[in-house]
Structure formats: structure tokens, C-alpha cells
Amino acid sequence: MSNETSTKVAKLATRMAISSRDEEDILKDKYSKLGAKVTAVNIGGNITESIHKILESALVASKRNGLIREEHLHEGAVIGATRDALMQVCNRANGQNVGGKIGVARMGEHVSVCIFLSIGLLHLDEVVIGIGHRSLPL
């Protein structure tokens, strides 16, 4: 596995984060054929109050869909990548209501988490995206 793989996994996580519910199963099958495991989960609410829920959602979805095992290193990788992605979006969304999606992808030792959010500002919607990456043992 190379740097090329980490870039590919980041793209897969991003694609999952921007997908519709209808596209998710199609993408899971498509990426499975490439040797990748992916998942996505919808999120929403006040970003500041939702951080714990976002971390938990990424972790539960990753376990439920077989991206990681239930062990310390695997869980820590997903939580760390999710926290990195959150740090990138929190400045823009601080205190605001958001709606969006978390996309998670794993290929080999690479795992990426992408958070795609729409931030409600009166009649304007701001869009923000953040991504995190970790390596973990096979």
C-alpha cells in the first residue's frame, strides 16, 4: 500500500459523505470490488452540542459495517480521524445548526473520515467539508 492508497481512500470517504441515501448501497458494492469498505451516516443539530454524537456515529457505523474491529487501535484510528475532520469544520460551523453526513472508507491499513455539512444561516446555506486520515494495523 502506498501514498496513492491513502489518497484513494480519502476520495472514497468524500464520495460517501456527499452521496444520497439511494447511492450508498450502490457505492458500497462498487467500492467492495476495489477492495475497500465504506459506510456513511447522516448527522445534524448544533455542531457544538453534537461533537460526542458525531464521534460515536462514525465509530458505530465503522464497526457495524466491518471497516474496523472492536479493539483499541482500530477504534482510536476512527475517533482520531473523525476528530481531525471535526476540527476542520468546527470553526466555520461553531454554534450553528448543521445537517450533513459522515463518510468513512478503509482500504488495507488506511482509513479516512470525511464530514460534509450544510450550515444554516438564515436563508443562506454555507457548505463545509473536513477530512481526517489514520493508518492502522491489518
TrEMBL record:
Which GO MF term does the entry hold, naming one? RNA binding
Task: List the InterPro entries.
Answer: Regulatory_HutP, Regulatory_HutP_sf
Gene3D superfamilies found in the cross-reference section? Hut operon regulatory protein HutP (3.40.1510.10)
User: Any idea which UniProt keywords this protein has?
Assistant: Activator, RNA-binding, Transcription, Transcription regulation
By its UniProt entry, which CDD domains does this protein fall under? HutP
Q: Which family does it belong to?
A: Belongs to the HutP family.
Question: What is the purpose of this protein?
Answer: Antiterminator that binds to cis-acting regulatory sequences on the mRNA in the presence of histidine, thereby suppressing transcription termination and activating the hut operon for histidine utilization.
Instruction: Give the record's subunit note.
Output: Homohexamer.
Q: Kindly provide the name given to this protein in its UniProt entry.
A: Hut operon positive regulatory protein
